[in-house]
Amino acid sequence: MNGAAVTVARLIHDATVRIADTLGLGRREARIEARALAAHAWQVETAWLIAHDTDIPDLMQTAAFLALLEQRLAGQPVAYLTGMREFYGRRFHVGPDVLIPRPETELLVERALSHLPTGQPLRVLDLGTGSGCIAVTIALERPLAIVTAVDRSPAALALAQRNASALKAAVRFLQSDWFAALAGEHFDLIVGNPPYVAADDPHLGRGDVRFEPLAALAAGHDGFGDLRRIIRDAPAHLAPGGWLWLEHGFEQAELTRRLLQEACMQHVQTLQDAARLPRISGGQASEKFTAN
Ligand code: GLN
């Protein structure tokens, strides 16, 4: 930078090209990222950037933007740099202690809502809540639902609590290794997006995933370590007729369904995400209460 007057449009354009070239992203995606970084660096809305594209940011502003850009070029996910990610139309705080909310997880929320008629105080459990995006969204979409969210990580719980407070969602948070702290409790609906990637999956070494908490992603040699435990223990925590829905990898639907069947769940089924990949599977507990 030689001090020549550089406009907002020019900065964004140059950053777009560098992001696209360095990270192998398409121009469109790279431009969205460049704008998100500039908006965060200057504490403005992205619409402001477009309205002010001939403005000349001062040296401090330019330096703040370029510092963020360098971190992005080194691979840091945009969501960790801006500290925010949108999920189901709301903005959630995120950080390196939690998985970045994915659009495909909105399918899990949609499915959960379909089991929660408005006006009924049903008990919902979110396992491994991370940023809290699933639990908080359900609590806001179904104000009468009684929502509990657990995570093993205190840092994740602190962030989830922060999101619940910021968005004014009533959620009970508990530190728990899956069902460990929930002895004797029953729920009408249990959902979760547990770690499900195989420990040696090369996917873990690419892109944003490299910077995300491994504990939220990897689950044993086959990726089923946590899905197995959850499905084994869930029936003891489901009310009669209650539903369990879990997110899983696109190649894990068949085995997930088999595990659900082995756990005596009924109406076992898989749903596809927007990319037409099998992404969530679920089943219903028997209507008759089988205490165990
Ligand atoms: N879908 C995520 C990924 O592909 C994994 C999320 C998870 O393990 N729960 O990286």
Describe this protein with a few key phrases.
292 residues; alpha/beta; Rossmann fold; 2 domains; seven-stranded mixed beta sheet; two-stranded antiparallel sheet; 10 helices; 9 strands; 37% helix; elongated; binds glutamine
Please report the number of helical segments.
10
Helix/strand order, N-terminal first: HHHHHEEHEHEHEEHEHEE
Tally of structural domains = 2
Task: Assess the beta-strand content as a share of residues.
Answer: 15-25%
Number of strands: 9
CA-CA gap between termini: 68 Å
Class by SSE composition: alpha/beta
Q: Can you name the CATH architecture of the largest domain? A: 3-Layer(aba) Sandwich
CATH topology of the largest domain: Rossmann fold
User: According to CATH, what is the class of the largest domain?
Assistant: Alpha Beta
Short characterization:
The chain is α/β, with parallel strands linked by helices.
Structure characterization notes:
This protein is α/β, with parallel strands linked by helices. The chain contains 10 helices and 9 strands. It folds into 2 domains: 8-74; 96-284, Rossmann fold (3-Layer(aba) Sandwich), CATH 3.40.50.150. α2 crosses α4 and α6 runs parallel beside α7. 37% of the residues lie in helices and 18% in strands. The protein has a 7-stranded mixed β-sheet, sandwiched between helices. It is elongated and about 75 Å long. Glutamine is lined by residues 99, 102, 193-197, 209, 217.
